[in-house]
Design goal:
The chain is an alpha/beta fold. Helices cover about 30% and strands about 20% of the residues. It binds beta-D-glucopyranose (BGC). The site of beta-D-glucopyranose has 6 residues, from loops.
Length: about 725
C-alpha cells in the first residue's frame, strides 16, 4: 500500500506513538504499519552484542587518506556488515569540525576543514546506502567539545556557522542524500539544536532540500512540543508515556497540526521502506583490501633514511603497544571486535630477527645493549582515558613514561622510529631526535598488518594530515572559548586550524595536508587554466621515480590577500595512484560551487583578488595563479574594462590577444613585432592587465580606433 494511503488510515494516537523510539535503538515499529528500523552506533563498525564486528580504520585515519574512493569502498563493506548483522541504520558518520585538538570526540570526526570532511563523508554515506543500510549524519550542529555537551550554549556568527560548521553537512545532504540527520545536544545561538527552526527548517529543509528524518541525539529533547513544532521528526530513545500526551496537548493548543505530523510520519515510513528493500549485493568485508587502505592512510611525518625497514636488519621493538595496540576510541562508538592484529607479530612475519621489550622503562643494561640493533622501533599510544565521548582530552601528549622512553632511546641510538597511536592532534616534540615518525591513528581490526606493511614498505604510506599538529596547545586559536565553560563564543570565527596558522604565520609542528611517502613523486607540467569567470582547470603530471607503487595527493587552495579572510582555504583535492616508474596526469576542475560562501545569510560568489594555488600541503605551494574573481556580468564588458579581465579568462583570451597583442608589444617593447613576452615580466604584466582596453588605441599604429573598439566589445560580449 502507498505510504500516503497508510497514513490516511492511521489513528492519531498511533501516529504520535511513531514519533518516539520503540526501544533504546529502534523506531518506526507498529503492528500492521511498520516493522521497525533497527539502529546501531558506528561510525567505524556495527556495534553488535556478540563482538562479531570488524573495527574499520577510524574516521580520523580515513580522513588522512584524502581518498574519496577508499571511503566509498569502506562504506560499502560497512553497509554490508550492517545488513548481515540485522542493522538497518548506522548512527554515523559524525562530521563535526575539529575546532580544538582537545575535543574528546575528534577521533570520530574527519577534519578541521569542511571541504575535506564533506567530500569524504559523502562518499562514505553513498557506499553504505548502496548496500541498503541507512545512515544518520551527526551531530547537527556545533558539537565541537564534549565537556558540558548536554547544556552547551554556542554563539557563532552566521557567516562562520554557515561557511565552517554547516558546510560539510550541506555537502553531504545535497550530494549523498543521507536518510537521517541527528540534532545535537548543543544550543546554537540561543536555541537548542533540537528546537532550532533556523537549522532544522530554514537551512536543512528549505535551503538544502533535505527529505529524510530529523532525529534527536539521545535524550537531547527538553521541550517536546517546541522540538516537534520546529523541525524534529523522531525523538530518541524517548518514552511514549511522556511523549504521546505531550504531543496531544501540543495539538490541542494548536502548536502542532495533523498535517505537520503526517509529514513526519511520511518521512519515517519512507525510511522504513528503504531499509526493508535490501538489495542483494556481493559486497563482503575484504581483510586484504582493508589492510591496504589502512596502511595507505597512515601519515609518514618524518623519514630521515630509516624507513622502510629491511628484512635483513636486526631490529628492536619497544613498548607493549606494539603487541596490544589501541585500535579505537571510547564512548558509544566503541565496538567489541572479532579480531585485533598485533603489529609486533606481523612485523615478525617480515623479519624474525626482531627482539622485543614491552616495558617503557629501560634498564642501563638494556640501553647499553642497544648498539647491537640496526634500528629501534618504539610504539607510543595516548592514555585510554583520552579520546572518548562525554569528556574532552586533558592534554595532547603521550604518557610521560613513553615520551621519556623515546627521548632516552634517541640519546642511545641513531636510528629510532616512532609509531604513534592516537585519535587527534598530538604534541610531537618528544620525537624530535627520532629519525622516523609514523602516525597510525586508531587503525582498527587490520591495523597490525597494516603497520607492518607500512614499516617494511609493502604499502607506501600515502596519508596527509587532515588536521594541523600544533607545536603546543598554547597555539590553538579557540583556547579562550573552549572547555569548562557553558557559554562558548566561537570568537575565532573561521580562523580555525590551518586557516588560522597560515594567516598569522604561526609555525606548526606538522601542517594540515602534510605527509611523506616512500615514492619519489615529481610534479611537472603544472597548468592552472582559467576556463570561465569561476571555472578553472588545474592539471599536472605526477611522475613516480621510485621503486614503490603509491598515491600522491594534490590540493587546491584559494589564497586571499585580505587581512580579514583566512589566507588559505582548501577548494578541492585529488588522489592519484601512480605505479613505480610510471606517470599520470591529474586534473582538478573548479566551478562556481567552489567559490560560493555565505554572507549575511545569503549565498554569494567570492569576488576580489585571490590566487588559485596547487599545493602539496597548506605550507607547500607548488604553483599559483593570481586571479580577479568577478561575477560574469556582461555589463562590465565595455571599452574601459581592464585588459587583464580578458587575458586571464580562457574564454576571452585568444580573441583579446588577436586584437591587442600588437598594440601591447608597441606599448611594452616599442615594436609590434618584438619577440619578448610581456607576461613574463611582473611590471609589464601587471601594467597591461590593469590598463583599460581603450588605452591601447594609442599604441595600435592606427589599427584600432573608437569604431573598431566598439565592434570588439560586441564580439567579446557574444563569447
Ligand atoms: C551520542 C550519539 C550516539 C547516541 C546513541 C549519544 O550520546 O552523542 O553520537 O549516536 O548517543 O548511542
Amino acid at each position: 500500500m502507498k505510504v500516503k494511503e497508510i497514513i490516511k488510515r492511521m489513528k492519531i494516537e498511533d501516529k504520535l506513538r511513531l514519533l518516539t523510539g520503540y526501544d533504546g535503538f529502534s523506531a518506526v515499529r507498529l503492528d500492521g504499519v511498520a516493522t521497525g528500523v533497527q539502529m546501531a552506533d558506528g561510525p567505524n563498525g556495527v556495534k553488535t552484542k556478540d563482538g562479531s564486528a570488524t573495527c574499520f580504520p577510524y574516521t580520523c585515519l580515513m580522513a588522512s587518506s584524502w581518498d574519496r574512493e577508499s571511503c566509498y569502498e569502506l562504506g560499502k563493506m560497512l553497509g554490508a556488515e550492517c545488513r548481515t548483522a540485522g542493522v538497518d541504520l548506522l548512527l554515523g558518520p559524525a562530521i563535526n569540525i575539529k575546532r580544538h585538538p582537545l575535543c574528546g570526540r575528534n577521533f570520530e570526526y574527519y577534519s578541521e576543514d569542511p571541504v575535506l570532511t564533506g567530500a569524504l563523508a559523502s562518499r562514505f554515506v553513498k557506499g553504505i546506502r548502496e548496500e541498503g543500510t541507512a545512515t544518520c549524519v551527526k551531530h547537527f550542529a556545533c558539537n565541537n567539545q564534549e565537556n558540558g555537551r548536554w547544556a552547551l550554549e554556542c554563539t557563532v556568527d552566521d557567516d562562520t556557522l554557515r561557511n565552517l560548521y554547516l558546510k560539510a553537512f550541506e555537502t553531504v545532504v545535497t550530494q549523498a542524500k543521507p536518510d537521517m540527520i541527528m540534532a545535537s545536544y548543543s544550543s546554537v545561538n540561543g536555541v537548542p539544536a533540537t528546537e532550532n527552526a533556523y537549522l532544522l527548517k530554514t537551512v536543512l529543509r528549505e535551503e538544502w532540500g533535505f527529505e529524510g528524518v530529523v532525529v534527536s541525539d539521545w535524550c537531547a529533547v527538553e521541550n517536546l512540543s517546541s522540538a516537534f513544532q520546529n523541525g524534529l521528526d523522531l525523538e530518541m530513545p524517548g518514552n511514549a508515556k511522556i511523549t504521546v500526551p505531550a504531543l496531544q496537548k501540543a495539538m490541542e493548543n494548536g502548536v502542532l497540526t495533523e498535517a505537520e505530523i503526517d509529514g513526519k510520519i511520511e518521512r519515517l515510513l519512507r525510511l522504513e521502506r528503504f531499509v526493508k528493500e535490501k538489495p542483494q549485493t556481493a559486497t563482503v568485508t575484504d581483510g586484504e583490501v582493508l589492510r591496504k587502505r589502512t596502511a595507505e592512510a597512515f601519515v609518514l611525518l618524518k623519514n630521515e633514511g630509516v624507513l622502510p625497514l629491511l628484512r635483513t636488519e636486526k631490529l628492536l621493538v619497544v613498548g607493549w603497544r606494539a603487541e596490544s595496540p589501541r585500535i579505537q576510541g571510547g564512548g558509544c562508538a566503541e565496538l567489541k571486535t572479532k579480531s585485533q592484529s598485533s603489529p609486533l607479530a606481523e612485523m615478525r612475519k617480515y623479519n624474525e630477527n626482531c627482539d622485543y621489550i614491552p616495558a617503557y622503562e629501560l634498564s642501563a643494561e638494556k640501553l647499553s645493549a642497544l648498539k647491537k640493533y640496526d634500528k629501534v622501533v618504539v610504539f607510543v599510544c595516548v592514555s585510554d582515558k583520552n579520546d572518548s565521548e562525554a569528556f574532552d582530552r586533558k592534554d595532547i601528549c603521550f604518557p610521560a613514561e613513553q615520551t621519556a622512553c623515546v627521548e632516552t632511546l634517541c640519546r642511545h641510538h641513531e636510528k629510532v622510529v616512532v609509531v604513534m597511536q592516537n585519535g587527534s592532534a598530538v604534541e610531537t616534540r618528544f620525537a624530535e631526535n627520532a629519525k622516523g615518525l609514523l602516525e597510525t591513528y586508531y587503525a582498527g581490526s587490520y591495523g597490525g598488518g597494516a603497520v607492518a606493511d607500512a614499516l617494511f614498505g609493502k604499502t607506501s604510506p600515502a596519508g596527509r594530515l587532515a588536521e594541523s599538529f600544533p607545536l603546543s596547545l598554547s597555539q590553538v586559536s579557540s583556547n579562550a572559548n573552549f572547555g569548562a565553560k557553558k557559554k562558548i563564543v566561537y570568537e575565532e570565527r573561521e580562523f580555525v586550524g590551518y586557516r588560522y596558522y597560515t594567516t598569522y604565520g604561526v609555525k606548526t609542528a606538522y601542517p594540515f595536508g602534510f605527509g611523506l611517502t616512500y615514492c619519489d613523486f615529481k610534479t611537472e607540467e603544472i597548468e592552472i587554466k582559467r576556463t570561465g569567470a569561476y571555472e578553472f582547470e588545474i592539471s599536472c603530471v605526477v611522475k613516480n621515480e621510485s621503486a614503490f607503487d603509491g598515491k600522491e595527493t594534490l590540493q587546491v587552495y584559494l589564497q586571499s590577500f585580505s587581512p580579514f579572510q583566512p589566507k588559505l582555504r582548501l577548494l578541492d583535492f585529488c588522489k592519484v595512484a601512480v605505479e613505480k616508474g610510471g606517470k599520470k596526469r591529474a586534473v582538478i576542475r573548479l566551478d562556481k560551487s567552489h567559490f560560493e560562501r555565505y554572507e549575511n545569510g545569503k549565498k554569494i560568489l567570492l569576488t576580489g583578488k585571490y590566487a588559485v594555488c596547487l599545493a602539496k600541503s597548506s605550507e607547500e605551494i607548488l604553483a599559483e595563479e593570481r586571479v580577479t574573481l568577478e561575477e560574469e556580468n556582461l555589463s562590465i564588458i565595455n571599452e574601459k574594462t581592464p585588459l587583464g579581465f580578458f587575458l586571464c579568462n580562457e574564454k576571452y583570451r585568444a580573441t583579446a590577444l588577436k586584437y591587442f597583442e600588437k598594440a601591447i608589444k608597441v606599448w611594452a617593447f616599442g615594436d609590434e613585432n618584438a619577440t619578448g613576452d610581456f607576461e613574463k615580466e611582473e611590471f609589464l604584466k601587471n601594467s597591461v592587465y590593469n590598463m583599460p582596453m581603450r588605452s591601447f588605441v594609442y599604441f595600435a599604429n592606427g589599427a584600432l580606433d573608437e569604431e573598431k573598439l566598439k565592434k570588439i566589445v560586441e564580439e567579446l560580449k557574444t563569447l
